[in-house]
Amino acid sequence: MKKTVLSLSIVALVAPAVAQDKVTYVDHVLPIFRNACNNCHNPDKKKAGLDLTTYGATMAGSENGPVLKPGQADGSLIFKVCAQTEEPKMPPKGDKLTDAELALLKNWIAGFALETSSSKPAAAQNQVTLAAVSLTKPDGPPPMPGDLPLEPFVRPKANTAVTALAVSPWAPLVAIGGQKQVTLYNTETLRPVGVLPFPEGFPTVLKFSRNGQLLMIGGGLGGKSGKVTLWNVLTGQRVGSVGEEVDQVLAADVSPDHAHVALGGPNKVLKIYSTKDGKLLHMLKRHTEWVTAVSFSPDGRYLASGDRNGGIMIWEGATGKEYSSLPGHKQAVTALAFMPGVLASASSEGKVTIWDVKETKEVRSWNPHNGGVEWIDFTPDGRLVSCGRDKVAKIWDQTGKQLGGSPVLADIAIRVGLSNDRIIAADWAGKIQVCKADGAPLGELAANPTPIADQLVAAEKSLADAKAVLPGAQQAVAAAEQKVKAEKEAAEAKRKADLAASQKLQDDAQKAIEAAKAQVAVAEKRFADARARVEPLKAASETARQAAEAAKKLVAEKKAANAPDLATAEMDVAAKVAVSDEATKNFTASQSAIGAAEAELGKAKGEAAKTIAPSEKTIGEAKLRIAELSPPLDAPRVDAGQVAALTKKLDGFNAEMAKRRDARGKTKEGTPEYKKADELVQGLKPEVAKAEQELAEAKKPHVIPMGSELEFAKVKAALDQANAVVANAASMAEHWRRAQAFMGVHRAESSFVELKGKHDGLIATAKDAFRGVEMVRAQIATLDNNIAEAPAKIAKTEADAAETAKALDVADKANTVATASAKEKEAAAAVDPKAVEGEIAAAQKKHDGIVPELNKRKEAAAKTAENTPEREKANAEVTTFEKQVADAAKVVADAKAKLADAQAKRAALTAAQEAQKKAQEAESAAHDKNLAAQRALAKLKQTAEAETKQLAELRAKEPKMAQDAAVAKTKAEQEAAVIAKQLDPAREQATKVRADFEAKWRPNKQASN
User: What is the pLDDT of residue 123?
Assistant: First the structure.
């Protein structure tokens, strides 16, 4: 905090008994008020109009005026009622303040009621930077802390339930509330990146701002105090605070533009503060129970609040004007979370509800956790994360479909966040688990981290242990590598030998095929040659036969003719027969040769067939083997055995699927039997799909490792794991060395700042040393003037009092006369005009009823002859009715006259009563004026007496005050001079430590996180 410098010498001068104490409202008096007074005198109750929770409100006093007089403890009402020397005694029901507490209160007032000491102001000036409201991710890298202190401010002996946890909307950052501190962790490395103090008490609510630049911490001490603080995420600086609550803050949120903080708690009131100056802007009193949940909408348009009765109120975010209420829960609202357009609410009854806020209607609801929901939160992409009394955290979409979840925690899950698909869940036992969305564990976090020195010792031990494992793992890898090499060389030699053998087998088979084919070709040629020779021989044989036949025929003819050349003809026949026989012999011989050649060809083909088929099979097998052996051993290939096994597995699944579908087909749709059978079918589908995928992958060529390679991969993985453990341990050790080094920077810079603060405070003390004396001298001058003017003021006030007494006597007499006149007029106005109006109405009705009868009689008389008995009788009846009409008219007139008289008397009574009222008011005003004059006179006399006494006291104190002020000034100047000599070395030391740190560690900043 920045420090506002105020002089402490005033206390030393006015109250020598506590000259060395710094008695201030913030450090000493406020704790007394919190314990004894603030349950009644707070902004919510404000009994007698008095609020003692802030310095400003205390100085403002009650509805009757100031309750203390700075510099005058005995004359201050607040001290007298606390000392119980004057009514009303305070506290009215509790124990009286102790002597030590009364002494502090008295010395504080006597020391002119300082708000703070010179080094600790009542409130730091807020330095919250406003932000542009956006529903999308901000430009630039997400806010992540730089170098922050990692030394815990508190190291408790045991964990407590984690009641505050928040995840940054954009950065891998989670904040976890501990005991009087908040720890920040990188959610990717699970390493702490900063520890922020919360000396106000226990954090109960944490929220990151919409853009992730601010972290809001709310909490306090139950039944004692509550506050909300704001922190810059990048620098770790506390930039603001709001609220001086008399009880712990249970729920709070910061608006998207950083302009407002809304908070609530056991007082059942929702409050909206300005972050600019910490002023309370709105107090909203619509909740009937503790306010347990608060959330701003992403655009800041709405503010939602929930209470322990299940009520949810929607307000306008900026004005606090009531917008609507959402009657959705029967038990306590445990959490609220906004996304654009929708609000999610959770309750201890076990229900989560999604609301359309604009339309004020429920969209959907479901029960995610048996026993009750403890927390919900939205991620920027619209997913919802929840946890509850079933000890589980879960991820949902906005339709209520579960997308993931955590394993069962050790105790009730009370807070949860989701960071880059990592679930961070905290339970009632204080354990914080980190896991993937599918539940796979990733690690644990701590709400109250271990001191840096202990962390460093543990990290270095882990590093040493990890390094000790490396030699064995490296030797195992080397041995496995040699084995792989030897096996590969042997396998390669065998591959080449098998390849050569297969190639030779293929060549030999090819040669056998070629030889068999050559033999067939020779036989085919012989057969072809034989066939080529037989046709000419056949033709020659036929020609010779025909020639012999012709010659024989000619001989026969010549014999018959006894031709002379018969002998010649017979000789010719013999010759031609001989030629024909020779030709026939040759033809027969050629046919025998064809048969032999054909038989030889058939034999050759048969033998070739016996040789070629096996040889071709051998060649085919050899080619496959050659193809298999030709690629290098490390070339991708298909594992036929694996394919066969997976094919068999898939066939089994398909057969089972056919059976299940057949069984389903025998049932009727819509029946329980069909549903059960269909569940069996659907349940097998994922297995079939998985088997199909495995088979498809197996059919793809891949490198098939040898046995030694599998062993090498195993030991290599072990070595890689060992190296990773070493690297992680080394990184962790470096992380804590860096943290330790930064604490040196932090301490050096803090030491310089503290030293400079002391120096500046002493300078201010020296400068303000005579302020108390000047105030007393000014007060003496004022008292001198007041005392001098007092006789004239008293005389004038006495004259005024005498005049007001006379005026009171006149007003009293006038009131007596007016009262008597009003009583007289009241007796005269006994007749009620409304009753007379009733008489008039009755008489008028009677009159109006006789007139028609009169008219009938007149008409009847007109129809009779004159001077006849009938006319006389009719005239008599007319006369009778005329008299009745006249009598009735007189009754009406008399009643109207009576009404006029009653109204006149009533008007006179009203005028008299009005005059009486004015006379009474005049008397009352005269009485008040006279009483005020009397009081003013008494007060003037009392003031004159008190000021005379006070003047004497101050004149007696002033010389000693001046002397003490001079001593205090000299002492402060001397001490400031001593400290001034230490400032430059402290500044240089801080600069050097910072420079050394930057030179050594800054290049590794990114790695450290």
Answer: 40
